[in-house]
Amino acid sequence: MERMERTKAELPEGAGGTGGSGGARSAGGAGEAAGADTAGAAGSAGAVRDRAMTSFSPADEVKRRGVRRMKLTATGLLLFVALVYVLAEWASHRGAGAWAGYVSAAAEAGMVGALADWFAVTALFRHPLGIPIPHTAIIPKKKDQLGVSLGEFVGENFLSEAVVRQRLRAVGIGSRLGAWLAVPEHADRVTAELSAALRGALTVLRDSDVQAVVGEAITRRADAQEIAPGIGKMLDRVVSDGGHKRAVDLIVSRAHDWLILHGDSVMDAVQGGAPGWTPRFVDRKIGDRVYKELLRFVTEMRDMPAHPARGALDRFLTDFAADLQSDTETRARVERLKTEVLGRGEVQDLIASAWTAVRSMIVSAAEDERSELRLRVRASLLSLGARMASDAKVQAKVDGWVEGAAVYVVTTYRKEITSLITDTVAGWDAEHTTKKIEANIGRDLQFIRINGTVVGSLAGLLIYAVSRILGA
C-alpha cells in the first residue's frame, strides 16, 4: 500500500510540467496530459516544439489533439480510482462496513493496472518519467531497425515472385484490359494519349541530333555490310523473273522518241566527228545513214521482244549478277563505289532531309484526329481489345507478359525497392518520427490504459472476493 502511495505521489511531480522543459518533453502520458498547458509556454522548449509542430500536416494536428484528449481521459480515470482508493481506505479505518474493503481492493488493482499500462504505452515512445530505464523509448532507439524490418517484411510478403504471380493471375489483367479497350471511348482516349506522347517525343528531339545519329547508323551499317553479293542475288532474281524487261521497254521507247525529236542532233554529232578532209555532202550522207540505222535498230528492239540485242542484254545482266556474287574484282569495285557515294555530302544531306520529312509527316498525322495513322491505331486498339476480351489464348499471353515483367522488376530491383523504405525511415528524425507514430496510433493506445484500469479493478475485486470467501 505504501509503495503504491509513493508511486502515486511521484507521478504528478514528474509529469506536472513545473520541473522545466526537460520534464515536459520526457514525461509519460499522464505527465504530458497534466503539464501540456504550462510546458507550451516555457521559453526555448516551446520554440523547439513549435518548430517541430510545423512539420505536421493539418490531419496530423487533428490526430495529435485526439491523442491529448484520450491521455487526459485515461489519466483522469487513474486519478479517479486513486481518489476512490484513498476514500475507501479512509472509510475502512473509520470503521465502515465490509464494502470499503471491496472498493479499496478494486481501486488498488485498478491503479496497478493503469500504472502498468501507462508504463508500457509510454515506454514505446519515451523514457517514463524521464528515467532511462532499459528497454524503454523503443521507437526512437529502434527506428532504423524497425525500418529494416519493415523493408524485409514488404520484400518477403509483397515482392516475392509467388505473391506477385498469384495476385496478378487473380486480377486477370488480360480480360479486364481487353474489355476496357473494346469500348470506343476508351480506344479514343488511348489513341489521343499515344498521339500526344508521340508528338511530345518528336518535338523534344532535336533534328540535328537525330540526323547525326541516323546518318551515322546508316553509314556504319552500310560500311560494315558488303552490298555486292546482295545486289547480285537481287539482280539475278529480277532477270530470271523477267522483271527487267519493263525497264528495257521503257528505256528503248524513250530512246526512240528522243531520236524522232532530235534527228538533227545525231547527224550534227556524226558530222562534227568526221575528218576535216572529207567533203561535207559525204559527212551529211554518213550522218543521215547512221541516224536511220540507229532509229531502225531502236525501233526493232522496241517492237521485237525476241530481238538479239535484248538477248545480249539478258546475258550481260546474268553474267554481271554472277560477277557481283563471285568475282573478287567486281565486288571490290562496288565496295569502293559505295564508300565514295556514302561519303558525299549530298547523300548525308539526303539522309538528314529524309528524317525531317518523316518527322513532320508523323507529327502532322498525330495531330489530325482523322488522319490515317490515328484511325489505324484506333482500329487496332479496338480489334486488340475485342480479341483480348474473348480469346483465352490472347488473355493468357497478355497475363504471361505482365507477370513476367512484374516478376522481373520485383526480383531484379527488390533490394532497391525495399531500400527505399529503409533509407526513408533511416532519414527521419527520431523525435519527429516518434510523435508522428504516436499521433496515428496513440489514441488507440490510450484505450489500453483505460481498459487496464477497468480490467485491473474487476480483477482486484474478484481476487479480493475470492480471498474473503476462502478465508471465511
Essential attributes:
0% strand; rod-shaped; Putative membrane protein; transmembrane helix
Structural class label:
mainly alpha
Which sequence of SSEs, written as H and E, runs from N to C?
HHHHHHHHHHHHHHHHHHHHHHH
Tell me how many strands there are. Answer: 0
Number of helices: 23
Percent of residues in beta strands? under 5%
In round numbers, the mean pLDDT is 81
Q: Radius of gyration, rounded?
A: 48 Å
Overall outline: rod-shaped
- Contiguous low-pLDDT stretches (5 residues minimum) are 1-54
Helix content: over 70%
Largest sheet: none
Can you put this structure into words, describing what you see?
This protein is an all-alpha fold and 472 residues long. Among the domains are: 56-136 and 429-470, no CATH class; 220-343, no CATH class. Helices cover 85% and strands 0% of the residues. It contains 23 helices and no strands. The radius of gyration is 48 Å and the shape is rod-shaped. Keywords: Membrane, Transmembrane, Transmembrane helix. Residues 14-32 have a biased composition (Gly residues). It holds the Pfam family DUF445.
